[in-house]
């Protein structure tokens, strides 16, 4: 398999994965609807930075530790599950108090650097603390490594393809929410969205905690 064939084949696989509704989609939609485009792009860039880092770690052979070491996998799995449950619980608590992210953004105009970095950190940690992403790369990347190409370079290139597809899909999501944001940012709808997303995030955390290696 040559480099071009490897890239195209990998693009098809991760393209289908990207279009499958999941935690990343829920976070991007929720942030775009309640906090605006700038914070949503913070989440998107955080997620994609995590993806690129997983690709680099896998190509360097470091994340193979997750597949080989039960202890390493369990530590990361429980840390990720705890983080997701904590993040979902925060969303539920804010909706109960009626003080969601949108209220903070409305009070200060466009989200500042603090809100952007908070969104970026949320996306990055959500991705990095999910051992399933690392195991996916450990399982998939070797199948798309052509002979004669340095593994680190090819791993970064394939992860870059994943990042580009993810960013494009998220751009479409953010564009869509821009069309309906005025209606969806009503107080009652905001609280409902925060509760729904909080429950989804907690559900992903509980599912991660229940899964075995």
From TrEMBL:
A Gene Ontology term for the protein's cellular component: plasma membrane
Lineage: Bacteria, Bacillati, Actinomycetota, Actinomycetes, Streptosporangiales
Subcellular location(s) per record: Cell membrane
A Pfam family per the record: LysE
Designated name of the protein: Threonine/homoserine/homoserine lactone efflux protein
Membrane topology: Multi-pass membrane protein
Transmembrane segments: 6-29, 41-69, 75-93, 156-180
GO MF terms, alphabetically ordered: amino acid transmembrane transporter activity
InterPro entries referenced in this protein's UniProt entry, alphabetically: LeuE-type
